[in-house]
Amino acid sequence: MKEFSRADRIGSQMQRELALLLRDAVKDPRLSEVTVQEVRVTRDLSHAKVYFTILDKSEAAFFTHLLSKAAGFLRRRLGQSMKLRTVPELKFVYDSSIEEGQRLEALIEKAVAGNGGEDDG
Fold this sequence. Notes:
The protein has a three-stranded mixed beta sheet. The protein starts with 5 loop residues before the first helix and ends in a 7-residue tail after the last helix. Strand 2, helix 2 (60-81) and strand 3 form a beta-alpha-beta unit. Helix 1 packs across helix 2. It is built from three helices and three strands, in the order αββαβα. The mean pLDDT is 87. The radius of gyration is 19 Å and the shape is globular. It is an alpha+beta fold.
């Protein structure tokens, strides 16, 4: 079984820490609506892409801007809670994979329903 790389371990710890920070430490209450899906950290630990989702996907650009403004605060708090020599620079990206999955699921259901229940065998 392949072990997780250091970047993967740091990414998953950052995901947990960011979720707590967004829930408890950030003054803007709108940011508590954000769900951190995944954090991908580069191998040299200099940058981290934070993938997030929100309930209303039409506000994705607005929340990306809000999170980018809070990035310095979040990075500083991550540095205090995680024992890292350098904390990666945070870049927030809206994660549309859930909507894409729902769209594909709907297409599959439509194709199956269009089959009219015919038996392949």
